[in-house]
Amino acid sequence: MAIGLASAPIEAKADVVSQLLDSIFVSSADQAYDYAPAERHGRHRRARSHWNYQPEASDGHGHSFTALASWYGGGSRAYEPNSHTASGERFNKWGLTAAHRTLPLGTRLLLTHGGRSCVVRINDRGPAAWTGRSLDVSKGAAAQLGLIQSGTGRVNVTVLASR
Question: Across the strands, what pairs with 100?
């Protein structure tokens, strides 16, 4: 004789509900992002239909990759005058600085976009992973690269020196 869920003990009901919730959330989380296998110099991650290369902290001098970059510092409440970056220094929107999720603070990068280039220093963390971007540059760097009007753009990145 089969026992229905309504007449089952409370522990059994909790177990069934727990298994059901686990199967729902685990399967949807697995489908949300399509992760490629890790590679020697980093990992590729699919976010919002863009393939972004995320270099690891071990990447060294001369390593190059392409990144989707945006600029920050134009009125964002998080970056008002006298706000501090992840490195502890004051944020200067006209400085040649950038934010990256994994590169060590102090790393210098050569950025090239549309025939224009500049050298920036990583002094902050970001951008948020859900944005699909892998590099945030200050307004000063964006002006030199010609990214102010568009807001975002693909940049070629070469690691010049790691701290």
Answer: none
